[in-house]
Amino acid sequence: MTDASLTLTLPDAEATALLARKLAPGLAAGDVLLLEGPIGAGKSHFARALIRARLQAPDAEVPSPTFTLVQTYDDGKAEIWHADLYRLGHPDEGAELGLDQAFTTAICLIEWPERLGDLTPPDALHLRFEPLADDSRRLQITAPESWQRRLAVLSGSGESLAEDAPDSAQTQTAPSQDA
Ligand SMILES: Nc1ncnc2c1ncn2[C@@H]1O[C@H](COP(=O)(O)OP(=O)(O)OP(=O)(O)O)[C@@H](O)[C@H]1O
Ligand SMILES: [Mg+2]
């Protein structure tokens, strides 16, 4: 299967939040977003903006699930699971948390998805946040075919993001092939 890859530059935290707000309305139960990148990359910031957009509550409290591992929300259309798996010892613990079930019944936002091992859903959307020297972030989105139509809200997205927030993002698209 051919994955598509989209690389964005997110100059500041608001650009990260704007991207999350753009993706939020198109999501549905069964969608899994794997939020990759080092400590402080902006994974929780992205998840918080996305959850607030889904809840239509810009000030909703969205704590980082660093210690609870999972926080759940209900936006009236779908359940949302926000997980931080940094402290997950073994993928089996992910199944014990009910993550494998949630992958089919909820919108799932997963920080430190590397911990999932074999539990990783094959059709998930990958978002890799990379802090750059100037404190901006490079974001690489890798999308299985099932996501590509929905990512149209982002592609050509230089313009569409720039429309809402001038100079806040630049994009390049490139096809990539599954290994
Ligand atoms: N595009 C960006 N440019 C600059 N700063 C950003 C950007 N996106 C997010 N940030 C900032 O990065 C900081 C750290 O973000 P966050 O806590 O979300 O990291 P994290 O990836 O969840 O880390 P952890 O692995 O510890 O959970 C926040 O203060 C946020 O405002
Ligand atoms: Mg975090």
From TrEMBL:
<dbReference type="InterPro" id="IPR003442">
    <property type="entry name" value="T6A_TsaE"/>
</dbReference>
<protein>
    <recommendedName>
        <fullName>tRNA threonylcarbamoyladenosine biosynthesis protein TsaE</fullName>
    </recommendedName>
</protein>
<keyword id="KW-0460">Magnesium</keyword>
<keyword id="KW-0479">Metal-binding</keyword>
<keyword id="KW-0547">Nucleotide-binding</keyword>
<feature type="region of interest" description="Disordered">
    <location>
        <begin position="156"/>
        <end position="179"/>
    </location>
</feature>
<feature type="compositionally biased region" description="Polar residues">
    <location>
        <begin position="168"/>
        <end position="179"/>
    </location>
</feature>
<dbReference type="InterPro" id="IPR027417">
    <property type="entry name" value="P-loop_NTPase"/>
</dbReference>
<keyword id="KW-0819">tRNA processing</keyword>
<dbReference type="Pfam" id="PF02367">
    <property type="entry name" value="TsaE"/>
</dbReference>
<comment type="similarity">
    <text>Belongs to the TsaE family.</text>
</comment>
<keyword id="KW-0067">ATP-binding</keyword>
<keyword id="KW-0963">Cytoplasm</keyword>
